[in-house]
């Protein structure tokens, strides 16, 4: 007679024979697994907004608003999209460098192609106000600037502009306009992210003569400081900074096919995050939660490039596998290629995928990260206890 082993009847068997210590383990396991079972991940395709494809590039602090770009067809221009659970908004704009959103989701920044064919950084609010941020004086005849991020209230915008000497990272406010923040070794620079209060800026700089790009962290008091590259790294870049400005994430490149995501803090220094198993060592970190504990990005496994989710407790996980394991649906025909944005609490992610051969933006939610660890601990505890009881039963049966 065969017996169907499920979590329920295994627990029943263990409870029937458990001593006090075992009972504690079983109870903890049961509570952990039950809490995980009740926490379900979600996955929402965002569509292509009438274009030929779409890509999510950022998500608001509370996870309710996603922004990104829409690829144009032969008869359409690319657009910026702003999506929320209640509505979506579009603005015609040829996007060159993506889009980012303020913490409350009300302001979007990016770059667009002007009618005179210059490229200009912009700041756009959900009320419909659209503001070009200009460029540095003395630059090329046609504007060439781009905005990549904004502070929590969008009063500070960062990106890159163009001077007579090349590109330079900027910090913009309504009061000061576009102000350059310099570059390392007299080269060119670009700012990619700013802290919630606007006081810390990170990005990348190219030295002159060329010696490879290098990530930087800038403050008003300390100026621009290069992040140390690990031994063997030839280039690096800082993609995002945490809300409080203490955690920086990005990539270090060792060769053409060898790139590793990193997490940097003043205390721990530069720490590589590894990569997904099965492929080349290719990974890049694109965003980080408010406290720096959750990092998202792209890595490569045996099947190609995939979105990843990382915490200190779990290490780097394939996001698609994680969503499926926590009950997410709507993933048939999808390949999640990159996770580009993450909410402040680390529970909502957005990025780029391929759906039945077409590029499409998506947003997903996961259970609280601690439940992932609890699930693993619970299953390990349960399995260890089950094996212990099974071995004891076999040993007794031979007496």
Report on the structure:
With 399 residues, this protein is α+β, with helices and mostly antiparallel strands. The chain is built from 4 helices and 28 strands. It has helices at 7-17, 20-37, 319-325, 369-397; strands spanning 42-45, 53-59, 65-71, 79-84, 88-92, 99-101, 107-113, 119-125, 130-132, 146-150, 157-163, 166-173, 177-180, 188-194, 200-206, 213-219, 223-226, 235-241, 248-255, 258-265, 269-272, 278-288, 295-301, 304-311, 315-318, 334-342, 348-355, 358-365. A hairpin with a 6-residue loop joins strand 15 (200-206) and strand 16 (213-219). Helix 2 packs across helix 4. The radius of gyration is 24 Å and the shape is globular. Residues 1-18, 23-37 and 377-399 have low confidence and may be disordered.
Largest sheet report: 4 strands, antiparallel
Strand order of the largest sheet: 1-28-27-26
Distance between the terminal alpha carbons, to the nearest Å? 25 Å
SS-derived structural category: alpha+beta
Number of helices: 4
Q: Beta fraction of the residues? A: over 45%
| Count of DSSP strands | 28
What spatial form do the alpha-carbon principal axes imply? globular
**Radius of gyration, CA atoms, in whole angstroms:** 24 Å
Q: Can you give the mean pLDDT? A: 84
Low-confidence stretches: 1-18, 23-37, 377-399
The percentage helix is 10-25%
Would you summarize the structure shown here?
This protein is α+β, with helices and mostly antiparallel strands and 399 residues long. The protein has helices at 7-17, 20-37, 319-325, 369-397; strands spanning 42-45, 53-59, 65-71, 79-84, 88-92, 99-101, 107-113, 119-125, 130-132, 146-150, 157-163, 166-173, 177-180, 188-194, 200-206, 213-219, 223-226, 235-241, 248-255, 258-265, 269-272, 278-288, 295-301, 304-311, 315-318, 334-342, 348-355, 358-365. The strands form 7 sheets. The chain has a 4-stranded antiparallel sheet, with helices on one face. A 4-stranded antiparallel sheet has the order 2-3-4-5, with no helix packed on it. It has a 4-stranded antiparallel sheet with strand order 6-7-8-9, with no helix packed on it.
